[in-house]
Amino acid sequence: MISLDSYTFIFWLTTLVTFAFFIVILKNADEQTGKRNTLKVTSFLILWLIVQAILTLKNVYSNDINSIPPKILVFGILPPVLTTCILFITKGGRRLIDSLPLKQITYLHIIRIPIEVVLYGLFLNKMIPELMTFEGRNFDIITGITAPLIAYYGFSRKMLSRKIILIWNFICLGLLINIIINAFLSAPSPLQKFAFDQPNTAILHFPFSWLPTFIVPIVLFGHLVAIRQLLKKQPL
């Protein structure tokens, strides 16, 4: 069996790639809004990753798992959700969202392939339940596999209609929400509903706490941006 250290390395690498790819997306924004804010966003994301690392290493998330609401929800997941909401409801935020390149956002979802590999490794090391893997209820790897096809044939070759790309984003968003719900309800807390014999403890420990607090919010944001742009019927 591959060691946990190997899966941890894959996760570190995937986090770094996600970070770098997102910054490249900002730099390639159509308007000066994204390019001008690249440095600010980069600094904010670095700070966010550091804060989440400190909270996890200080066992803030793993201690007192009976707290309601769970601490990782309050300090790790809610802030990115609120930030996304602010971007979508403010004029400046929507201007930034509409300037982001759809093709690169679609390619970003390839990171879900190594994430699924990591999740399977965490299952083998008894840190998450099987239902969170592609052998259980998690079909998110489909997004990672199809993302380059959608990006290439939809945007480079322009062989796919806007409707097909939009449907793909809705389906993949559904797959993401599915694993988010299952992961949350499998984590040790008063709200846990599944996997009591092998709960989802990985997200409470470093560096895997970056999955729900950084990587998942990024890919969720990517789908929401794509859906908004496609519904607005902007040129592909």
Give your account of this protein's structure.
- By secondary structure, this protein is mainly alpha-helical.
- The chain has one domain.
- The chain has ten helices and no strands.
- Helix 7 runs antiparallel to helix 8.
- It is globular, with a radius of gyration of 18 Å.
- The N and C termini lie far apart (44 Å).
- 36% of the residues are buried.
* Order of secondary-structure elements: HHHHHHHHHH
Biggest sheet, in brief?
none
How far is the N terminus from the C terminus?
A: 44 Å
Outline: globular
User: Total helix count?
Assistant: 10
Estimate the mean pLDDT confidence: 92
Instruction: Assign the structural class, choosing from mainly alpha, mainly beta, alpha/beta, alpha+beta, or little secondary structure.
Output: mainly alpha
Extended strand count: 0
Count of the separate structural domains:
1
Helicity level? 55-70%
| Assembly state of the chains shown | single chain
Question: Radius of gyration, Cα only, in angstroms?
Answer: 18 Å
Low-confidence stretches: none
Measured by DSSP, the beta-strand proportion falls in under 5%
